Amino acid sequence: MSYVDDVIELVVKQNPSEPEFHQAVKEVLESLRVVIEENEEEFKKNALLERLVNPERQLKFRVPWVDDNGQVQVNTGYRVQFNSAIGPYKGGLRFHPSVNVGIIKFLGFEQIFKNSLTGLPIGGGKGGSDFDPKGKSDREIMAFCQSFMTELCKYIGADTDVPAGDIGVGGREIGFLYGQYKRIKGLSEGVLTGKALSYGGSLTRTEATGYGLLYFTDEMLKNNDIDIKDKTIVVSGAGNVAIYAIEKAQQLGGKPVTCSDSTGWIYDPEGIDVELLKEVKEVKRARLTEYARERPSAEYHEGKGVWSIKCDIALPCATQNELDLEDAKILVENGVLAVAEGANMPTTIEATEYFQANDVLFGPGKASNAGGVATSALEMAQNSQRLSWTFEEVDSKLQNIMQNIFHNIDDAAKAYGLDKNYVAGANIAGFEKVVDAMNAQGIV
Ligand SMILES: NC(=O)C1=CN([C@@H]2O[C@H](COP(=O)(O)OP(=O)(O)OC[C@H]3O[C@@H](n4cnc5c(N)ncnc54)[C@H](O)[C@@H]3O)[C@@H](O)[C@H]2O)C=CC1
Ligand SMILES: O=C(O)CCC(=O)C(=O)O
């Protein structure tokens, strides 16, 4: 067995019941074979891969809080500080009932390579809780966030670990978390990103992941002689990433016609009304049925189904493993030209391979959704400078970063004779920088 196979087997053995973490590791290590095999003995002697797949530190803690009925509730909090070779741990917090250590580890592992691809000095980490924000009052959300931060604040800081949002964590939650950090530590510092503008946030951070996804997609399409104008685009999700992906897709002349949440999905053949979607999701925090009620051209369907709509471009922006082999077959049959991931690992390995085998351009999340964390790093830079940059300044840096990511992964793929395999290109380019930094710092 090769070194890569040994390490994949070790990960499965040492981390039982963590299928998403196994999946993320397999996907990365499989495409690194070509790099590892060039210098296998050296990598093995330095236990490079064993160090890469083992988090530097893994925190799990109790989060007690009091609900509106006076009942004490107990949730579990996590922070996985995966790899700091390039810079302070950086990555979001997810509040969702499905959260467990394996999910946080898959997200933290992906984050190492994504953050490396941004070209900015940030290491990889991720955290969260099995707390479900759905249906909770603002006071309950605040009570939970304060308790969560009371423990987490011992392990984070502007130069050590800088969390941000992810599923279930937006501006409201970041505000409560920041307030509690400042209260306990007495520090006004850039310890979190995704802050509001009034206390150190960056313009464009709200839009960054969705906009970045479209900057990347547009660059990938242009390099393959495809114009995004008038293309029909199918989007899943209706949260932060999906909303701003839809907005930028429209600005670039594309036509997004779907969105979805955890209970149902919208098909709007006239094109999604993004202002209405913002009103429903960001202001009212309501279901998509509300969108359909207000918009005569929209159809609402229960369950999952956006991938059944004929399209040129598919952008999965909801959650992991939401697009499987059956969905991929339907999309290919309907003539899809390109798929780019807004969410983290939304496409199963089998579906990804099916797209690649059928010449569908495929942008992997660690490259295509890196605009969010890249703009978080720009927020950190502004906080360190005690300055705020304009929307145009941040947006143009974001655009540059996403175009560079595309070209770096394209070059890395070509260097190994894997032209147009952007999955391999992203893993290789992300890995090479992390390995350089790890090697330079000795055995740590
Ligand atoms: N917010 C950010 O800056 C970044 C987010 N991501 C990823 O993008 C994805 C979406 O995150 P956000 O938009 O920030 O979260 P969000 O909480 O704003 O929205 C998530 C959306 O996905 C839907 N969703 C969640 N679970 C679902 C399920 N099981 N089935 C169907 N729909 C489901 C929700 O209803 C919601 O509309 C996640 O995979 C996240 O890790 C990736 C990079 C950065
Ligand atoms: O902005 C950040 O630090 C977090 C972004 C994130 O969680 C992600 O890229 O998946």
TrEMBL record:
Matches recorded under SMART domains: ELFV_dehydrog (SM00839)
Domain of life: Archaea
Record InterPro entries: Aminoacid_DH-like_N_sf, Glu/Leu/Phe/Val/Trp_DH, Glu/Leu/Phe/Val/Trp_DH_C, Glu/Leu/Phe/Val/Trp_DH_dimer, Glu/Leu/Phe/Val_DH_AS, Glu_DH, Glu_Leu_Phe_Val_DH, NAD(P)-bd_dom_sf
Keywords, ordered alphabetically: NAD, Nucleotide-binding, Oxidoreductase
Keyword Hydrolase: no
Residues where NAD(+) binds: T209, N240
Gene3D superfamilies recorded: Glutamate Dehydrogenase, chain A, domain 3 (1.10.285.10), Leucine Dehydrogenase, chain A, domain 1 (3.40.50.10860), NAD(P)-binding Rossmann-like Domain (3.40.50.720)
Catalytic residues in the record: K126
Important for catalysis (site feature) positions: D166
GO molecular function: glutamate dehydrogenase (NADP+) activity; nucleotide binding
Annotated substrate binding sites: K90, Q111, K114, G165, S376
Domain spans labelled Glutamate/phenylalanine/leucine/valine/L-tryptophan dehydrogenase C-terminal: 202-442
PROSITE patterns: GLFV_DEHYDROGENASE (PS00074)
GO biological process, alphabetically ordered: glutamate biosynthetic process
GO CC entries: cytosol
Quaternary assembly: Homohexamer.
PANTHER family: NADP-SPECIFIC GLUTAMATE DEHYDROGENASE 1-RELATED
Family: Belongs to the Glu/Leu/Phe/Val dehydrogenases family.
Name of the protein this chain belongs to: Glutamate dehydrogenase
